[in-house]
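Lecture 7 notes: from sequence to structure.

We start with a single chain of 375 residues. Read the sequence below before looking at the structure.
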Amino acid sequence: MAISASLFINQKGTTTALKQPKEVGFYSRNQQGEIFPFDDGKLKYYYLPNNDINKEIDLNSGFKKFKNCQCDFKDVATLEPILETIIGYETAKSKQLKSDIIAHGETITKLICSSFENSNVNPINMRLASYKGQLYIKDMTLQQKVKKQIDLKGYIQYKFETMSTVTQPIALMERDTIDRRYRKISNDGDKYCSLIRTGVGNAKILIEGDISCIYDFKQEGKDNLKHYVNLGVSPLVSNLNESHKFENVIFKDWLRSFLTGVPRIIYGFYDDKHILKTVEEYATEEIPVLFKEHNPELATKCTNAIKWYGLLAEWLLKVVPREDEADLIRPFKLILEDNHLKLIEIESEDPEYDGLVNGEDMLSNKYKAWKTQSK
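Now the structure, written as tokens:
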């Protein structure tokens, strides 16, 4: 009998216990969409001296030359990078990387935010697969968002990341290369991601987090979460309305960084001509404290977000069967409708079923073969 269940999005759990995030792997992706597990070739290093901020840097420059690589990717939402990194970890360690739920960090962040945002703003259309005791979640809306032409707001984010980072530790860089980084063409193909083992309550969760750059230095063979930083941009804040807008932005960035264990967020603030005017650094763990002082409602929202996260994970593990030894994939739809997250099992006559179960729409054949042989 097909499984169907729902969870009211305004319901709150009781747990606020988040397991300490730990980096267990990483990978790089190039402009062609190729994945390189345990390769840090696309890792960048933060470099933006205070004197450079006075150079009237135009975050709009190069907009027409932006390389939108993702529009040519077959599947932007693919779980393959995570799966390939899991295989690399298990091969090197000769043991399984145990977890209950596996997903992109952006997917988990989006599910948590479903409790706070209108469904028209934050539509949920995901697929979930139960396979060998684990749940895999994929966001089906990501591919729909890929456009040939990026909007200016999105471009400014990429431009700030490009001009405030270098490709190697600064001591290894040529001065001329450092100075030319402002003219470097931005793209959305190159990416470095960390694979993080974390959890909430009793649920063990494995998520991938996009990493903007290293703040200081990388420790080879070590967990580098404490060295990472996420970068963001914002218009200058000069009135109460703009302050509220920025607080909503920083809440999401806090949630994303908190879930993945990234300790710093750095924002570049620009004026109405898109000129970089100032840069501010925030410690991830201190953001709820700042909210408590200036906007107690947002401080409460931070706590409620983690409570909802715990309830959501608990609900998924309770309602979705997880047979450890079964080779069969059981696919489900996870949608947001009428203020409820709804989980609906996809049956064999559904057009999606074959691609999710027998094809590679969810899990790659390589990964399925690996899990079968390594059980």
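DSSP finds ten helices and 16 strands in the chain. Keep this in mind for problem set 3.
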